[in-house]
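Thread: "does anyone have the structure for this chain?"

Original post by V.I.:
We have the sequence but no experimental structure in hand. Need at least a predicted one for the grant figures.
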Amino acid sequence: MQRFTIALFSLVSVLSFSLVATAAEDRGGALYYSIGGSFGEPGALNTAIGKSGFGPVPSFGWSQGGGGHAVFQRWLIGGEGHSFFNQRVSSGPDSMAVGGGYGLVHFGYMLAHTPSFQLYPMVGLGLGGMSIRSTRDLSPILDMQQGSLPLTHVNSLQWLLDLGMGSSLVIPLGEKAISGILVGARAGYLFSPFGGMSWSSNELPIQGGPSYSPGGFYFRLSLGLGSYE
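Reply from O.Q.:
Generated one for you, tokens below.
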């Protein structure tokens, strides 16, 4: 997942800078850092870990990441990677850390497109998953099985679809500059369009496990560099 996100971000960065360098009408691009929160659905996970005395994982969590996009004749293509801050729960001396992340390719259209203001709906498709680490064997807790070895770190993976709406303001760096500081906001809904998910440990598949994905309603704030014509 980490290699996929880095490759995606690098590709979008090169594409964005290429279009910015040859800016013309209805073209542009942006690179940004993003932080925000989302409302997940950890119900199945909390039911499983609650039977072993662990406290519930909160439905709301924070994440951070980065991304970029390029615009050509108002059409937008870009990518973004996000990583969730770990949420920790405990049961006596034992602890559990739940995290995750995702990487998406985005497509959209600029409803409003000026050098200083942009408004755009977008659709994203990519891969994402959750990560669970515990000081106790997760096999009996999460009803998982991978031979006879204890499981203390497991990961999930699934396809994700993102439906969102974004906006941004660009503050010029100079009186005649076409590029500047970008401040943006986006909200949307992230979910698995195909259902199903797979758990693994040490890159080997695991049987069983609860349903838990990085999807849900989200909001993001972003800060970066943008240039639009």
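V.I.: this helps a lot. Residues 1-24 have pLDDT under 50 and may be disordered.
O.Q.: and The chain has one domain: 2-228.
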